[in-house]
Specification:
The structure holds 2 protein chains of 2 kinds. Chain A is α/β, with parallel strands linked by helices. Chain A has 2 domains: 111 residues, Rossmann fold (3-Layer(aba) Sandwich), CATH 3.40.50.2300; 58 residues, Arc Repressor Mutant, subunit A, CATH 1.10.10.10. Helices cover 47% and strands 10% of the residues of chain A. A 5-stranded parallel sheet of chain A has the order 2-1-3-4-5, with helices on both faces. In chain A, helix 6 packs across helix 7. By secondary structure, chain B is mainly alpha-helical. Chain B has 2 domains: 107 residues, Rossmann fold (3-Layer(aba) Sandwich); 59 residues, Arc Repressor Mutant, subunit A (Orthogonal Bundle). A 3-stranded parallel sheet of chain B has the order 1-2-3, with helices on both faces. In chain B, helix 6 packs across helix 7 and helix 7 crosses helix 8. Chain B is elongated and about 55 Å long. Classes of the chains: A alpha/beta, B mainly alpha.
Chain lengths: 190, 190
């Protein structure tokens, strides 16, 4: 098993927990490190909360370097944004502890909450362009700057923001930026 | 050990137990009543309450305990204005097992220049400005913040401008994201 987390302390604690449960544990701080130390681990446990990167790219990166069973966990998953591209084999919500993780490792992932299913359904309606807007909004860029980064007009950005506000039933762009941040979206190269 | 992220709590517990400590795991501050402890390890990242009031409550309930704050929010330095923990573990630089064991042995942990700088900035934030940030952290607009704080909208606007200048930020969305990452939340949040 490989544990991936940028939170060094969490990584050390998780490793101890999984070793106690009888697993052979290899640790990595980022998915990038997996490439440098190839292993035949059949399971990857991925912390999506304590990362500087975008949650969907993190999952894609993990899938590229390793084709094992991927278990993702973290509070960002509760907001359901991580289903784009390379969904994890199992998602663990932070309210569940050691038992849920051990069950997922045994390929018995916990059932998804109805709240999570609802969020997944909403994110499935977000277009790739709207997702790009949210990535830049997650660090607080204004519409003009986002337009420049995405090489589209400010009015197009505004239209994306408006439809996203309606989709997620939010009342202003700050709420939307907070949602993007909490859901683990980040600009490319962040 | 106080942490709302159950998996992180379980992981930290197995690590600390292996080092010979007896741990009591707690999810929320309500469960602190009647508990006694030599040291308190507090995760600031996954709290659903304001981090400053979290640390104050820990100090009140566990009188005399050595408080160790940890998490990515530590680096932003907002949590420790009203109460001073014994140690602050910034997960980016001293988040490893050794740092926790050192902190539990009451060995001083050095603060990064960035953290010291952020502490200095937060020390300049007035109580009213902090209240503004708490509401901003959940995305309220100026008019809504003004009515919650029973002040005029222009007063809120002035607080926001002063805070933007203090932290070197460009717009209120950036400020809201910053407040949220630092762990601020309205005090009467559910």
């Amino acid at each position: 098993m490989i544990l991936v987390s940028e939170h060094e302390l969490f990584r050390a604690g998780l490793a101890q927990m999984m070793r106690n449960a009888g697993y052979n544990v290899v640790m990595a701080s980022t998915p990038g490190q997996l490439k440098r130390s190839p292993s035949d681990a059949d399971t990857i446990v991925l912390d999506v909360d304590h990362t500087n990167g975008d949650v969907t790219s993190l999952l894609k990166q993990t899938e590229q370097v390793h084709d094992g069973y991927v278990i993702a966990f973290g509070s960002a998953l509760r907001l359901g944004a991580a289903i784009d591209g390379a969904p994890a084999s199992a998602e663990i919500e932070p309210r569940s502890g050691e038992r849920a993780l051990l069950a997922a490792v045994a390929h018995r992932p916990p059932a998804q909450s109805s709240e999570l299913k609802k969020m997944h359904a909403l994110w499935a309606q977000v277009t790739p362009r709207q997702r790009d807007v949210l990535r830049w909004l997650s660090i607080g860029l204004d519409n003009t700057t986002i337009g420049r980064r995405l090489r589209i007009g400010e009015r197009a950005v505004k239209a994306h923001v408006t439809s996203l506000l309606t989709l997620f039933s939010l009342s202003n762009r700050t709420e939307l930026a907070l949602l993007a941040q909490h859901a683990g979206l980040r600009p490319p190269g962040a | 050990m106080l942490c709302e992220h159950e998996l992180l709590r379980d992981a930290l517990a197995s690590m600390v137990k292996r080092a010979g400590f007896h741990t009591v795991d707690i999810a929320t501050t309500q469960q602190l009543r009647g508990k006694r402890a030599e040291s308190a390890l507090i995760d600031l990242d996954h709290a659903t309450v304001d981090v400053t009031s979290l640390l104050c409550q820990v100090g009140e309930h566990l009188d005399g305990a050595y408080v160790i704050a940890l998490g990515t929010a530590v680096r932003l330095g907002a949590a420790t204005v009203d109460s001073t923990p014994g140690a602050e573990l910034e997960t980016q630089r001293n988040g490893g097992e050794r740092a926790v064991l050192d902190a539990l042995a009451h060995r001083p942990v050095t603060r990064s220049p960035e953290l010291r700088r952020n502490h200095r900035l937060w020390a300049q934030v007035t109580r009213r400005q902090r209240d503004t940030l708490r509401w901003l952290a959940v995305g309220l607009d100026n008019a809504a913040i003004a009515s919650r704080m029973q002040v005029g909208e222009r007063a809120v606007k002035a607080h926001v401008s002063a805070l933007l200048a203090l932290f070197g930020l460009h717009n209120r969305t950036e400020l809201a994201l910053y407040a949220s990452q630092a762990g601020l939340l309205p005090l009467d949040a559910p």
